[in-house]
Amino acid sequence: MTAQQLAAEASRAVEPFYRLLDAVAEEVLRSRPPRAALTETHFSGLQRLLAGLLAEEHGIWGMGFVAAPSVVEGRERYMAWWQRHNERVARLRLNFDPTSIDVYDYLQMDWYQLAQRGQQRVAYGPYVDYSGSDMYTITATIPVIADGIFLGVAGADLVVGDVERRLIEVLRHTDEDAVVVNTERRVIAANTPRWLVGSRLDTVPTVGETFADVAELPLGTGWCLAIARR
Asked: Looking at the record's lineage, which domain of life comes first (predicted)?
């Protein structure tokens, strides 16, 4: 199979995560009152949705809505985010006090900023989320927009091992060494020990001495799939 064919299959393997984020974004928009300020009380339906999704999809550690400044009335920062701990789902609560030494300023996070700048699908990582889940994760986000106004992002912390497993199942369709890397050249998955998950390639994969075929995943995250030369 060509890199383009494998890239298309790899996209289909990860696409379900973004369909779940679409559902989260739709619930946020549905909860938003037409002629009143958005408050925390409007998110009861979102909480039920997130609890159900986390119970069903074990490829996700946590997920929710992260609001732009002052979108939620009386809140300069606001996260409606739930996490799964074994079989229990609980609300994640972080410190948003800007005067505190351990403030969690999500406005500076790449997964937030890229969506704010208009990227329709963001996949940041893999990285260790020391502030949230303490897990090795990939944070996937999409922008939530109403009437041209950026309200925030719908996001999910993906289990790296689950993403890797889905992609390896695709990479097994070729007998050649193949790898999927993100925009920072970090390895997401490979069908060979030649590349370790999380390691960084020296250069962006291009057709040349090392790689015989390269294609970007249609997923929209900027990931690419490369097949090595024999």
From this structure: Bacteria
Cis peptide, bond prior to residue 126, ω within 30 of zero? yes
How many residues are present in the chain? 230
How far is it between the farthest Cα atoms of the chain? 63
Does residue 221 contact residue 17 with C-beta atoms inside 8 Å?
Answer: no
The CATH class that applies to domain 15-159 reads alpha beta
CA-based nearest residue to 27, from 60, 4, 49: 49
Amino acid at 185: R
| pLDDT tens column, 44-90 | 999 999 999 999 999 999 999 999 999 999 999 999 999 998 778 99
Which structure tokens are listed for 54? 């986390």
> Would you call 59 helix, strand, or coil by DSSP?
coil
Terminal Cα distance for the chain, rounded: 15
What is the phi/psi pair of residue 61, to 5°? Answer: -80, -45
pTM over 0.90: yes
The helix (H) or strand (E) run that includes residue 187 is strand 187-190
The answer to whether residues 179 and 187 touch, using CB atoms and an 8 Å cutoff, is yes
Query: Tokens in use for 185?
Result: 């050249």
Q: Domain residue spans in the chain? A: 15-159, 162-228
